[in-house]
Write a structure and sequence with these properties.
The chain has 463 residues and is α+β, with helices and mostly antiparallel strands. 37% of the residues lie in helices and 19% in strands. The chain has 19 helices and 19 strands. α2 runs antiparallel to α3 (117-128), α13 (265-279) crosses α18 (422-435) and α14 packs across α17 (318-326). The radius of gyration is 21 Å and the shape is globular. 53% of the residues are buried.
């Protein structure tokens, strides 16, 4: 039976997007592993339990903090190819239907950037882990062979991104369809991924060189060259993770660390926090017009949203602010759009906060591996100057912002999916903890506001 996504027991604290992911982390801690081991096992499990949100064909960012030491940042996000081709590109739009809105994404072989997550997990294991990688893959292998029951959130995501599911025979089979025209699986259907189980077995035995230099790399590079993509074998073999110094700032009496450049999620979060500290009076009630006005101005500090947020009718009306904060909740599950997050403390001082993303997925599944590759070169949010204009051989920017907050003797690990909503969600959770003395669960589940593109409303908390 699936366990709760969050667990606080035995000195451990685990938060993930799926009960089976939590169970994978718990199993490693019970076996004597630490937070790094648990985070790696949970990440691998998440590629099975949340296949539309993360994949070994994508990338991620993590913060890791050992007891008595400053956090370090692991950058294993995707990287642009070394050369950009212009002929016969396999790159096309699909439309995701969110019910109340639709959004266009771009997929195909030319949307794939060099994946970094596999290298990142091995780097995390080498620097901080205790257990062998062959042990860490075991929970994910079991899940991939036995299958995982499709829950309502994953079913909802599957429907939104149905065009990607139907993009190829490989992607259709990955999600339980015998062919691209078949019916989507119903809630409760067990969906497995035997090729991924086989791949993970080899990965546990051979290491990350198997993925970046072995047969999977050669097949991916060949398919890319022949089917209209940018990736080559040189892109895969030259990929390197980066350990970086996190951004660090004070928010009132708390210290906050988050993802540094070239990712810009942490920078935007820092700007939002700085603005909140300046504009939110310490005695403002939660949900009051003064509170919402401060939130609006903090959101304006995000450069990407500045023009959309400058709305005099919202900022100048106390009644409008109160209604905005209390009356615009949306029903239905929250979808993180190609991103998920894992936070783990092991009770012995080590903490890992890791955010993973595959974009929406490219529609291409690497044969024999059960891995869908990312579509980061087709993500508008991180290709602001337009598609096919990215600089070659550079780390792509990201809005992901795994974050650690310390106040006194307490520590909180934060992170979220949601693309450009990440920074606004995290800023409000931090404010809830620090400004309103909320418990973490209370701060997460409190109503949150996000402004974008002339819309205002509330988003009920995800994880």
């Amino acid at each position: 039976m699936s366990k709760a996504p969050s667990l606080n027991a035995g000195g451990w604290r685990i938060a993930t997007g799926h009960g089976e992911t939590t169970a994978a982390a718990q199993a490693m801690l019970e076996a004597g592993g630490n937070a790094a081991d648990a985070a790696i096992a949970a990440t691998l499990a998440a590629t099975v339990t949340e296949p539309m949100l993360c994949s070994l064909g994508g990338g991620g960012h993590a913060l890791v903090q050992a007891e008595g030491r400053a956090p370090v940042s692991l950058d294993c996000f995707t990287h642009t190819p070394r050369h950009r081709r212009s002929d016969s590109l396999d790159f096309y739009p699909i439309v995701g239907n969110f019910g109340t809105d639709i959004q266009e994404f771009h997929v195909g072989m030319a949307a794939i950037a060099t994946p970094g997550l596999v290298a990142g997990l091995f780097a995390l294991s080498e620097r901080f882990g205790r257990m062998s990688f062959a042990d860490l893959v075991e929970p994910a292998i079991r899940l991939a062979r036995e299958g995982v029951a499709l829950n309502p959130t994953q079913h909802y995501t599957l429907n939104i991104l149905e065009p990607i599911v139907r993009a190829s025979t490989g992607s259709a089979r990955l999600f339980g369809l015998s062919d691209p025209k078949g019916d989507l699986p119903a809630i409760g259907t067990r969906v497995g991924n035997p090729p991924l189980a086989d791949f993970l077995t080899e990965l546990g035995q051979q290491g990350d060189a198997f993925f970046y230099h072995g047969e999977p790399a050669r097949r991916l590079a060949a398919d890319s060259v022949h089917a209209g993509g940018h990736l080559t074998l040189a892109d895969l073999s030259s990929y390197r993770i980066r350990w970086r110094r996190p951004l660090r700032w004070r928010y009132r009496e708390a210290t906050v660390w988050s993802t540094p450049p070239p990712a810009f999620g942490g920078m935007m979060l820092a700007l939002a926090c700085a603005n909140l500290a300046e504009t939110l009076a310490v005695d403002s009630p939660h949900g009051s017009p003064q509170h919402v006005r401060a939130l609006c101005r903090a959101m304006q500090s995000s450069e990407d949203l500045r023009q959309q947020l400058e709305k005099p009718d919202l900022l100048g009306s106390a009644r409008g602010l109160k209604l905005a904060f209390s009356g615009l909740t949306r029903p239905g599950p929250v979808v993180q759009r190609g991103t998920t997050h894992i936070s783990i403390e092991d009770g012995n001082g080590l903490a890992v906060s890791i955010t993973l993303s595959n974009g929406e997925g490219s529609g291409y599944v690497l044969p024999g591996t059960g891995i869908m590759l990312n579509n980061m070169l087709g993500e508008e949010d991180i290709n602001r100057t337009g598609f096919h204009t990215w600089p070659t051989n550079r780390r792509l920017a990201s809005m992901m912002a795994p974050t650690i907050v310390r106040r006194g003797g307490s520590r909180w690990l934060l992170g979220s999916g949601g693309s450009n909503r990440i920074r606004t969600a995290l800023a409000q959770v931090i404010s809830g903890i620090v400004d309103f003395d909320m418990a973490l669960d209370q701060a997460i589940h409190a109503a949150r506001m996000h402004l974008e593109g002339g819309m205002n409303g509330l988003i009920q908390a995800g994880h």
